[in-house]
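Design a sequence for this backbone.
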């Protein structure tokens, strides 16, 4: 077998060419300037393979065998196939155990393919990058609106597509000319995502609701308020808490979200353990050793897929019961676990916390993320803060 040998630093790897020759046959083909007969075709194939290999390596900003193999052995038609890039990236996310993000990309791909296939009898298997123009994206947006989808949903589905374009652009598969996003091209709609939060009076009513002892309603309400008191802790982060995260009088943890995206500087969030937080831990914690999960939502035998499924189910459970409680006490809002995070933020700012303090408490890497919470607050909350400025 004739094999392609690639060296990098102290590593070398051999790749099959699909050609078999004797030593003499190799010398009479690849090893000579003017091969004769059938050896001429063999030399042509090997030289072309060598050119392809060198071309791929020369165009790689940073070499890695994984990156080289991906480009080298990709089917010819997949080089500019959006569907291929989506599926490859989804598999990468699954391998990295980023199941929720993989699910988001999968939903994005399904939505875009539904649009492409809307007038076709057979499902499209190939979608060229150059097909997706600003006009294509505007038509997709209009199609989504006609299907009574929110403009926010359009943005949620198109941001993964933009990331796929960025990956292809970084690999040199596409250039700026066919890149459809940006100013004077197509701008992904952000939507007006109003951040909802409960008032002080509503929080008091919700906390004081008399749920039956040991009932599912009581459990849902308790977890909702645990999130609220713990800096608006995301429910995935609650599920990921380990016994070792309880350190003295604080809970110290890193957001599951930032563990994946900011490996170099994952910020630690510190939550002071108040009397009510401690009573919640005493009541619901089942962990005994440092490596145990603090609460019985996850366990150490679960796969990433198991965790993704169970946290969705648990969040759905809390949302269902917190909505019913809210309705029972006269709060006619579509309350969810996410409201606990925004209620914490609102109360912190109303209480005089600085944006920097809130940013640190929420675990935001960038201030602009924290500012987006503030921009979504209702005018009443902003006015209360403004009126307190002269209270000195």
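Sequence:
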């Amino acid at each position: 077998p004739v094999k392609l040998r690639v060296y990098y630093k102290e590593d070398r790897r051999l790749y099959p060419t699909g050609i078999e020759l004797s030593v003499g046959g190799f010398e009479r083909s690849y090893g000579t300037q003017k091969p004769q007969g059938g050896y001429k075709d063999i030399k042509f194939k090997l030289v072309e393979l060598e050119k392809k290999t060198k071309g791929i390596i020369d165009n790689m900003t940073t070499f890695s065998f994984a990156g080289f193999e991906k480009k080298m052995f990709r089917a010819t038609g997949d080089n500019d196939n959006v569907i291929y890039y989506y599926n490859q990236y989804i598999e990468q996310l699954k391998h990295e155990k980023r199941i929720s993000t993989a699910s988001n990309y999968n939903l994005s791909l399904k939505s875009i393919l539904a649009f492409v296939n809307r007038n076709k009898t057979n499902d499209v298997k190939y979608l060229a990058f150059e097909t997706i123009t600003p006009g294509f994206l505007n038509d997709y947006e209009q199609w989504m609106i006609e299907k009574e989808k929110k403009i926010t949903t359009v943005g949620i589905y198109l941001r993964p597509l933009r990331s796929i374009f960025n990956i292809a652009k970084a690999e040199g598969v596409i250039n700026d000319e066919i890149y459809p996003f940006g100013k004077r091209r197509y701008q992904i709609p952000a939507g007006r995502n109003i951040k909802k939060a409960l008032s002080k009076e509503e929080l008091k009513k919700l906390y004081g609701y008399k749920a039956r002892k040991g009932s599912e309603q009581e459990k849902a309400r308790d977890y909702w308020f645990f999130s609220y008191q713990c800096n608006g802790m995301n429910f995935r982060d609650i599920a990921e808490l380990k016994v070792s995260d309880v350190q003295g009088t604080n809970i110290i943890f890193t957001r599951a979200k930032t563990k994946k995206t900011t490996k170099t500087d994952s910020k630690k969030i510190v939550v002071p353990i108040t009397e009510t937080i401690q009573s919640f831990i005493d009541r619901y914690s089942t962990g005994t050793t440092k490596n145990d999960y603090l609460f019985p939502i996850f366990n150490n035998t679960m796969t990433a897929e198991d965790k993704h499924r169970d946290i969705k189910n648990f969040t759905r459970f809390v949302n269902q019961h917190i909505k019913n409680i809210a309705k029972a006490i006269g709060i006619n809002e579509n309350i969810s676990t996410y409201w606990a995070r925004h209620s914490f933020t609102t109360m912190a700012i109303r209480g005089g916390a600085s944006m920097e303090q809130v940013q640190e408490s929420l675990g935001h890497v960038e201030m602009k993320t924290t500012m987006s919470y503030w921009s979504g607050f209702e005018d009443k909350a902003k006015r209360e803060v403004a009126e307190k400025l002269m209270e000195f």
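The CA atoms of residues 220 and 317 lie 7 Å apart.
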